[in-house]
């Protein structure tokens, strides 16, 4: 796990590309690799690579940039390829100079070219310069676990692990209006867009071959296809899921340093931690949990404690308070690169700080909700469609996998979501499925009159939403698959951005075993009536792994998702209220072009529940402007 930065000019430069230019970009991401740094510039000065290393595999000989024996190829790489041992054997282990996965990627590319990427199992973003062909090859893992941004300027192509590394080299800094519309709609950006105009993601599951003077033209090398398997029994799916989860955990435990686990108290992280502990019964296993000191509604540590006690784990619990928010929120936004998802990034930052005191590598549960269907809105949306189907007499035409009668027993899961249901059914009842799910995930209408009329391109954002929702790789029969697919393609990358940045802010490698491509490909073939039988969220996952978890977790009906008591803090005098009022008090903050009027803290608070995110969205966006744009 590392940070990478690179420059490719438009052609040979007199005297060569100054190493100081590479150092300048690398300086902004050194937190990603505190164990060592390396800089390389090609002989003619066309290309420069920088690398900040976090040593996890091959601690002694895995330094980068790394060159092929003949000097033709040079690589910089961020991530972990878990099947590097098997690939090393296939490529001829006795010919390797190191035991690193970096050399495995380099050698695989030398033998198979761009096709080598499809052979890699893991999380990665890397660049390879071919001195003979004078081509730059960029690639990113299937799910976008590891980041890779790029921008084309007057001087050439700049790319790196984080946007902040590219910011000093922009010809001009401006906000991308289409990305801002996405942000107000979802609190993340769709597609390749970022909030910084001209800065793009290399999309997940894509690679690009670039020559000097060109911009990357990404090509997809992998896609998840929802080709439903109706030939196997539920027992077969049960056995296969258990095999694939065990294999993914085994691969994700590969490291030359100690591996721990986040333990939030929810199903996904608890399951990952339990299986990891089971695979490593000897010695200690350390878990990490965060809780707010503002009452039981913001504390899941007792669930984490139940798992730790049952599995003989050493559990570290981080107490997080209001002053921690004031002291660290600017750092959180800086490390995020751009605001995304919800306020969970703040407690994630605090817990990751504790992780670094004990281990370098930590496992997390990201991906379980999107792959196996864990969000309450799936149940809300599907219940409406069941009622519609029953009224219209179309309940058994193939579009429905459960009846409204059978789903009723699981509706108690929605107890804490009554305000969302009330708002959802207030308008557009029984419209087409895409419009109804859009209403569930679209947050733009919840800002009231705070936003300027042109801040949101509703038609453009909705059109892009539809393209993803009705993706060619998803059949039109299953509403459940369409919903989970949209979140897999959009929300999950945002959550992975949080996972990566908050861990790497402290030099910690976070691994996500649910996002192992054999497991994801398998999950996409499971019939929805197996995954979502009787409307039970994450049903198959629960039924297969119930014996692995304590009753306290198995019997949970609430889903907290690391809520932050920001609204509670701001409804009373204190350091958080004083801080937020100060943030919005500057002239620049009052005159942001996307605001219809200056932010009225009291008015925003009066219009949202304890768990609402509108104030968080406006606050984090303002802090981002102050750090990335005003400065």
Question: Could you say what the CATH architecture of the domain at 2-220 is?
Answer: 4-Layer Sandwich
Number of helices, counting only DSSP H or I runs of 4 residues or more: 27
Major β-sheet, in short? 6 strands, antiparallel
CA distance, first residue to last residue: 29 Å
Identify low-pLDDT runs: none
Helix content: 40-55%
What is the CATH homologous superfamily assignment of the domain at 2-220?
Aminohydrolase, N-terminal nucleophile (Ntn) domain
What structural class do helix, strand and pairing data support? alpha+beta
The value of Rg in angstroms is 24 Å
- Here the CATH topology of the domain at 2-220 equals Glutamine Phosphoribosylpyrophosphate, subunit 1, domain 1
Task: Count the E strands.
Answer: 17
Shape assignment: globular
């Amino acid at each position: 796990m590392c940070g990478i930065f690179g420059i490719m000019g438009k052609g040979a430069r007199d005297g060569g590309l100054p190493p100081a230019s590479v150092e300048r970009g690398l300086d902004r991401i050194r937190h990603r690799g505190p164990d060592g740094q390396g800089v390389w510039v090609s002989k003619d000065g066309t290309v420069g690579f920088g690398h900040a290393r976090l040593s996890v595999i091959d601690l002694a000989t895995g330094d980068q940039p790394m060159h092929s024996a003949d000097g033709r190829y040079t690589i910089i790489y961020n991530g972990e390829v878990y099947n590097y041992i098997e690939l090393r054997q296939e490529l001829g282990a006795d010919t390797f100079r190191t035991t690193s996965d970096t050399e495995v990627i380099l050698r695989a590319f030398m033998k198979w070219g761009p096709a080598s990427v499809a052979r890699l199992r893991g999380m990665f973003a890397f660049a390879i310069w071919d001195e003979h062909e004078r081509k730059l090859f960029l690639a990113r893992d299937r799910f976008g676990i590891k980041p890779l941004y790029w921008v084309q300027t007057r001087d050439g192509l700049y790319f790196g692990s984080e946007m902040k590394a590219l910011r000093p080299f922009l010809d001009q800094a401006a906000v991308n209006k289409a990305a801002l519309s996405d942000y107000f709609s979802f609190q993340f950006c769709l597609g390749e867009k970022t909030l910084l105009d001209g800065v793009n993601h290399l999309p997940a599951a894509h690679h690009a071959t670039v020559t000097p003077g060109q911009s990357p033209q990404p090509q997809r090398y992998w896609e998840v296809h929802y080709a439903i398997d109706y030939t196997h029994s539920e027992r077969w799916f049960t056995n296969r899921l258990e095999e694939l989860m065990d294999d993914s955990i085994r691969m994700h435990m590969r490291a030359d340093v100690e591996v721990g686990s986040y333990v939030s108290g929810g199903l996904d992280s608890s399951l990952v931690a339990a299986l990891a502990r089971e695979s490593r019964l000897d010695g200690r296993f350390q878990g990490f949990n965060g809780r707010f000191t503002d009452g039981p509604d913001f504390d899941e540590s007792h669930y984490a404690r139940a798992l730790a006690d049952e599995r003989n784990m050493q559990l570290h619990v981080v107490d997080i308070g209001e002053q921690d928010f004031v002291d660290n929120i600017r750092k959180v936004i800086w490390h995020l690169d751009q605001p995304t998802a919800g306020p969970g990034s703040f407690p994630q930052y605090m817990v990751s700080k504790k992780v670094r005191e004990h281990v370098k590598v930590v496992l997390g549960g990201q991906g379980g909700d999107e792959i196996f269907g864990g969000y309450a809105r799936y149940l809300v949306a599907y219940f409406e469609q069941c009622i519609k189907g029953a009224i219209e007499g179309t309940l058994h035409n193939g579009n429905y996998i459960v009846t409204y009668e059978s789903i009723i027993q699981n509706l108690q899961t929605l107890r804490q979501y009554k305000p969302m249901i009330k708002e959802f059914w207030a308008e557009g009842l029984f419209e087409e499925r895409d419009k109804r799910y859009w209403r569930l995930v679209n947050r733009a209408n919840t800002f009231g009159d705070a936003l300027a009329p042109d801040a949101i391109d509703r038609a453009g954002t909705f059109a892009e939403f539809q393209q993803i929702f009705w993706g060619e790789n998803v059949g039109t029969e299953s509403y459940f698959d369409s919903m989970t697919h949209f979140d897999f393609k959009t929300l999950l990358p945002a959550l992975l951005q949080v996972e990566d940045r908050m861990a790497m802010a402290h030099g910690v490698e976070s691994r996500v075993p649910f996002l192992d491509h054999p497991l994801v490909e398998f999950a996409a073939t499971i019939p929805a009536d197996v995954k979502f039988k009787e409307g039970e969220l994450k049903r198959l996952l629960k039924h297969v792994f119930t014996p692995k978890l304590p009753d306290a977790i198995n019997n949970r009906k609430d889903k907290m998702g690391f809520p932050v008591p920001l609204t509670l803090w701001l409804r009373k005098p204190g350091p958080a209220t004083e801080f937020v009022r100060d943030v919005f008090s500057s002239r620049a903050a009052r005159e942001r072009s996307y605001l219809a009027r200056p932010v009225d803290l009291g008015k925003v608070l009066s219009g949202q529940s304890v768990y609402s995110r509108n104030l968080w969205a406006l606050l984090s966006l303002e802090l981002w402007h102050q750090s990335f744009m005003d400065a």
